[in-house]
Structure formats: structure tokens, C-alpha cells
Amino acid sequence: MAPVFALLTRAVNRLWDAPRRFLQVFGEMLLLLFNAALWALRPPYRLSLVLQQMDFIGVGSLSIIVLVSVFTGGVFGLQSVEAFRLFQADGYVGTAVALTLAREIGPVITALMVAGRAGSAMATELGSMRISEQIDALSTLAVNPVQYLVVPRLIASTLVLPALTMVYDVCGMFGAYLFAVVVKGVDRGIFMHNVRWYTDFDDVGMGLIKALVFGLTLALVGCHQGYNASGGARGVGLATMRTVVISSVSILVIDFVLTDILITLGF
What we know:
- By secondary structure, the chain is mainly α.
- It contains eight helices and no strands.
- Helices cover 87% and strands 0% of the residues.
- Helix 3 (93-131) crosses helix 6 (188-198) and helix 5 crosses helix 7 (201-227).
- The longest helix has 39 residues, at 2-40.
- The radius of gyration is 22 Å and the shape is globular.
- The protein starts with a helix and ends with a helix.
């Protein structure tokens, strides 16, 4: 009887381990966000660090955002032309692409690209500082590590993601125009007229609200994983891997929740 009871106990522990770990990490991230919010209100206000992170996250990610957006918009344009021509409605290709990019694809893919590039870099940098005891050295010098390392990254990522999303939307529409109008022969006037007529500020606003939340999320995940890294070089690698995975999954889950909320609010 004892071996059976021990086997059942191990099975229950394994089943509970995943939700327990999720709740633990989620609580740690909320606590880190709360501490960062408190320290962001206290001097000194290190604007130079925020600008440095904005340059790294925003300007550094600009090339990959432009490249991905042009071809994403082009693919949507080509696919939409083929689908809409079945109903003799290829003039609405621009509308479909514009709404899809502004409301959904723009903020989501931008956040995923930045999470893979900048979020993983945050985890690697902070993880390396943790295992080399540089974070402990900051505390010894009476510099709060959260204020010095985490706050600038959270602020910069939150501010930069909407700007990158706008760049993505514009370049994506350029790609859609190029492949739909120039390659597939959709009427240019109808294409542009329908984009202007059916796309309004609420559509763009939905994407920008999502981008704000995604920017905060990916920076929070990267900072949390790097700040709490342990176990040497292997621990830093695991923190980087977890950052990409958790950020990507979180962005997709939050996107669903935000879409439901914003549609309910009338966006």
C-alpha cells in the first residue's frame, strides 16, 4: 500500500508543480513591477539611462521591424487579392490589410520581434550581472538595482513599442500597396480610397494600446528572468530562453484578452 501511496503523491506533486511555478513567477513579476513603479517616482531620475534603452530597443530594432513589416504586408496583400477576387471585391484589399495591421498584426508581430531581440538581451545582460555579483555591488554602493537597472528598461520599452508599431503599420501598408497594386494590378485609386474611408483612429488606437501593454510585458519578463538568474552560464542561458518563451506566450494571451475588452468598449 505504501508504494502505491508514494506513487500517487509523486503524481499529484508533478501535476501541481506547473501551476505552482506559474503562480510563483507571476507573483514575483507583479512584485517587481510594483517595486519598479515605486522607485520610478523617487529621485534621482536617470533620464540618460532611459534614452540609452530607447535607443537600444527602438532604434536598434528598427531595421528588422521595417524588413518584416514590408514582407508581411506584401503577403497579406497577395493573399487578400486572391481571396477577394473570388467575390469581385479586390478593391477592398487595402481595407482588409489596413485593419488587420492596425488592430492586430502590427502590435503583435512588433512585440514578438522586440521580445526576441531586446527582451532576450535584457535577460542576458541582467543575468550576467547577477552571476558576476555586479547587482550586489550596486546595493553595496547604495544604488538600488531596481531603480538603476529595471525602471529605465520598463519605461523605454513601454514608450518605444507604440512608435515601432506605427512604423510597422506604415511599412506594412507600403508592402501591401506594392504587391497588390503594382504586381497584381488592383486599382490604385480604389485601394487608397477604401483605406482612408474604412480605417479610422479607433483602429489605430487599439493597436497602440496593445503595443503599450506588450512593451511593458516583454520588458518585465526579461528583467525578471535576468534579475533572478542563478547557476552560472547555464542559468543565464535558461533565463534568456525562458524570456523568449514566456514573453511570446504572454503577448498572445494578453492580445486575446485586450481584444475582447477593447471591442466591448467600442473600439
